[in-house]
């Protein structure tokens, strides 16, 4: 079973993963790189939706973490663009934002988000949610 050699309570992300994290806040990008990176998980960060879309064109990712409030293209529009392309049907997308109002949640899911998390981020919880999200999405695609 994938991840079975993971040491309990050390790394949450034990499967081989490529994660794209898109956030205009450099501190959030750094936290993401530090707290989610493991010997098995590679974190790539982007400072804008436009940069994130360009990275998606260049490499394959197992999950995308996308902030909503960014200058230029916002995260909801980025999710819409991802979902408009058939090649990204198997990409789980988690929206991460400081907003937790009903409208923001509904907009994220209507755009095609697979999951939603509010800031401030609990990095340990996020690691567990990413692990579940990727495994569930892979099982769905395989079915």
Automatic annotation (TrEMBL):
One of its GO terms (biological process) is phosphorelay signal transduction system. Keywords: Phosphoprotein, Transcription, Transcription regulation. The modification 4-aspartylphosphate is found at residue 67. InterPro entries: Bact_response_regulator (IPR050595), CheY-like_superfamily (IPR011006), Sig_transdc_resp-reg_receiver (IPR001789). CDD domains: REC. Residues 18-134 form the Response regulatory domain. SUPFAM superfamilies: CheY-like. Pfam families: Response_reg (PF00072). This is Response regulatory domain-containing protein. The lineage of its organism: Bacteria, Pseudomonadati, Pseudomonadota, Alphaproteobacteria, Hyphomicrobiales.
